[in-house]
Amino acid sequence: MTLEEYIKIVFPILKEAHKNRKTKPIIKSPLNYIATTIFYGLLEIDEFNSNVRVSKMAQEVYNNIENNDKPDLRNLKWIDQSKYDPKRELFILEHIYTGKMFKNALDNIIEEELTEEKVIEIIRKNYQAAWITRGENKDLNKSIRGENLDNALKHYNDMEIELNNKQ
Known about the structure:
The chain is mainly α.
C-alpha cells in the first residue's frame, strides 16, 4: 500500500479528529486515539516499514544475535522482531517523530486548508522511526522531545543515542 492510498482511506478520520480537537479539546477522546493509531500504522506503508534508522548500540546488539538469515536491521519489520528477539527484550522500534508531533503539525493547519496532500507532505518531510535498545528507550524523555523532527533528533543526540543515516 502506498502512502497516498493509506491517507485516502484514513483522511476522513484525521479530518474529523482535527475538527474535534479544535472544538472540544479533550485529550483522551476516542477519535484522538484512533487518529494516533492511524499515525502508528504508517509503519505498515511500504516506504516507511523498511530502511528505518538504527542506533549504534542496537546495531551492536543485533550483530551479536546468532542467526545467519537475519535481515539488515534497517529493514527488519516490527512483526518479524520476535524471530530474533523472542521476548522483545532487546529492541524497540521507536518513533523519532512522534504521534504528538504529528497531531500538533496538523493542528497548526486551519480546518479549511487541511487536505490529503498537506498530510502527506507533513509525513514525508518528518516521519522517521528507529530501532533502539530497550535501555536507550528508557533514557529518552517522552515529554520533552520537542515539537518537530529536528527537536527530536537533538534530544536523541543529547541522550547520546547515535543514529545511523538513512540509506
